[in-house]
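Q: My labmate handed me this sequence with no annotations at all. I'd like to see what the chain might look like in three dimensions before we decide whether it's worth expressing. Could you predict it?
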Amino acid sequence: MIDGCGRTIDYLRLSVTELCNLRCVYCMPPEGICKRRHAEICSLEELEELAAACVELGVRKLRLTGGEPLVRKGILTLVERLAALPGLEELTMTTNGTLLPELAAPLRAAGLDRLNVSLDTLDPARYRALTRGGELDRVLAGLAAAEAAGFSDLRLNAVLLRGVNEGELGALARLAREHPWSVRFIERMPIGPAAGLGFLPASRVLEAVPELREQEAERGERGGGVARLYAAPGWAGTVGLITPMSCDFCGACSRIRITADGKLKLCLHSPEEIPLRGLRGAALRETVLAAVRRKPARHRLESAPSQSKRIMYEIGG
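A: Here is what I predict for the chain of 317 residues:
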C-alpha cells in the first residue's frame, strides 16, 4: 500500500480490547471505563478477517494492542491464527507485562515473535501510583518468564513524565547494561489524560546517561522503526529514544491502526475514522486502500493538542 505522500504502509496496529487490568494515569480516566457490550467489539473472527485483508494488501508487521491485549478472552487462539497468515513477517504485542508470568510461554508457542512491555518506573510505590494499583513485581516476573520462554528481543517502553520518573532515567536506561533488552523512552503526547501531565524531552535521557552513543539503525526492526538507538561500551542491550514531540517522524510513518470496534485510523492524532465492520472481501480491501491514500502527511502536536476523538485505551497503544 502506498499513501498519498508516497509512503509504503506495511505496519498495522490492531487493538483487540479496550479493557485493561491497570489504570495508568496517562492512558485511562481515574474512574475507569464503561465496559462495552460484546456486540460493540470485534469478535476474534472479525479481527482475523481485518488483519488478513491488510496483510493481503501489503502489511508485513502486525502489533496487537489494547487496553491490555492479554485480558482478551481467546487471545492465544487469535495469536495462533494471525501467526499463520501468509505474507506476515512479524507478529508482536504491546503489554503491561502483569499477565506474562502465566502467558509468556503459551504466547511464544502460539507464534508470537516479540514483546514490548510497558515499564515507566522501577520504584514499587511509584509504579502502584502511576498504574493506580499495579504491582511492579508482577512485571519483573513477567520479563523473566518472557526470557525463559525464548523472547530474545524484549523491548521496554517508558513514557517520559516530568516530575514523575525523570529521576529514574539513568536507572531505567541501565537495565540495558545488564540485559539484552532495548529500553525505549517515549515522549508524552498531548492526548487524553496525558495532555495534563508534564512534558520531558527525550534528550534528558542522554544528559542522565552521557556514556550513550547513537547507533546506525534499530536492531531487528523492519521499515517504520521510529526509535533512535543508543548504546555504550560493554552494554548487553540498547536505549531507544522515540520523539513524536521534539523531532517528529511523520515523514517515514508506515503504520495504520484498527480499533477494537473495527474503525481504521490513519493517524493516531487525526479525528478521521473509517468503519470496517461488516465489510468483506474486495469491498473491505478497496475501503482500506482508498482510506490509506488520505493518510495525513503529519500531526500538528507542536501547535495544538491531539485531534483524535478517542484517548489511548480506545485506540490501542
